[in-house]
Amino acid sequence: MFMRTHKSFLINLDEVKEYVRTDGGSIKMKNGDLVGISSDKVSDFLHLMANLKRE
Q1: How does pLDDT run across 4-55, given as a tens digit for each residue?
Q2: According to the model, what pLDDT value does residue 13 have?
Q3: pLDDT of res. 52
Q4: Using H for helix, E for strand and C for coil, what is the string for 11-55?
Q5: Which residues have C-beta within 8 Å of that of residue 25, sequence separation ≥ 6?
Q6: Residue 5: what pLDDT?
Q7: The predicted structure's pLDDT at residue 24
Q8: What are phi and psi of 29, to 5 degrees?
Q9: Of 3, 7, 24, 48, which residue is the least packed, with the fewest Cβ within 10 Å?
């Protein structure tokens, strides 16, 4: 499943390692990249990740 976290980023949610809450929030990917996330998308992202972990 993919999600647009910012107008510049489209990420594969299966490749997310963790959400980093510092400095407004960012997403650490399994390959080590840090991806920005806009403040209005954080709650949607956290909700999607919680649902993916349940599956």
Answers
A1: 999 999 999 999 999 999 988 999 999 999 999 999 999 999 999 999 877 6
A2: 95
A3: 86
A4: EEHHHEEEEECHHHCEEEECCCCEEECCHHHHHHHHHHHHHHHHC
A5: 19, 37, 39, 42
A6: 95
A7: 85
A8: -90, 160
A9: 7
